[in-house]
Specification:
Elements lengths: L3 E5 L5 H15 L4 E7 L5 H7 L3 E4 L8 H5 L4 E4 L6 H12 L5 E7 L24 H14 L6 E6 L11 H7 L1 E4 L11 H14 L1 H4 L2 E5 L7 H12 L4 E4 L2 H8 L1 H11 L9 H6 L6 H6 L8 H5 L18
Parallel strand pairs: 1-2, 1-4, 2-3, 4-5, 5-6, 6-8, 7-9
Amino acid sequence: MSALKVLVTQATGRVGKELIAHLAEARQAGRDVHIRAAVRSASKADFVKSLGADEVVAFDYDKHETFAPALDGMNAVFSANPDPQADGHAKFCEAVGQSNVSHAIRLSCFGADTHTASYDPDVHASLQGEKVPGMLRGYWRDEEVLLKQLPKATTVLRANFFQGHIVKPETGSIDANGTFKSPLGECKNSFVSTNDLGEVAAICLLEGVERHGNKFYDITGPVPQSMHDVAADLAKALGKDVKYIAQDIDAFEKDFGPQRRAFFEYLRNGFYTRCSPDFYNLTGKKPQPFIDYLLKKGKAGETGLEDMWKAGMWSKGKNVMAGHEA
């Protein structure tokens, strides 16, 4: 079996760091794996090396000149990008098509189905006269630009909403008064563990393009949960009372912008409720429950609680998606 040489983009992200740790474990078990971690800041180099990266390369979706050096000598790539950097990702995919990469893993969103299904982008799942949310259409686009380059050699991991994102903007309120707000209410969603996503990305890379090329996997949690269920798990993990407070969707839009509101309508209408068997089919086990994500360390050595209490891209009063939806 030839050596697997993987470029991991978003190497310090929630999924990228887990992927590196899983690949490093496979290398320790005897697999011939070389891991190149792509980072925007040189200050992250020691961290990704501690996880098992063999080398670190400078990489920035806004600096297209970093693409070719990052891809040089690699035969596989893990493709992920922050939502607002879709244009840079599209240019990166062009570079992937000109490289020697023969297998790409794309981190996407459950419901990004224009390639495998026939969703009409002008028809919303529940709101009459509305289009599919721009963010979701953006995830479709992000898949398509990679599939255009490697149509038979791409594996797409379509994730549900991350468990680590559920209350990240509300951690200050949880600390201060034991409450968090959300417009999701009673609707239950099968939120996914980023630990699981890192694990299945590693499996698909290690088992290869012959088995996983041109495959699309929906990766979800093991059970749909309402915000009251989330509050109960947080209370158990934190050892204190945590209460969910219903939030008006208009107030949510003021906090995060119309693009985020439109996407959250799909988390309020049952579109993301179902549990997929794909994680089980890939690993032979059930997905990680939210309470386990909160309390148990992933391969990268961090619990979900530790991750959730870090600063994230989505901050109240900042519309990071303005001008970036498809």
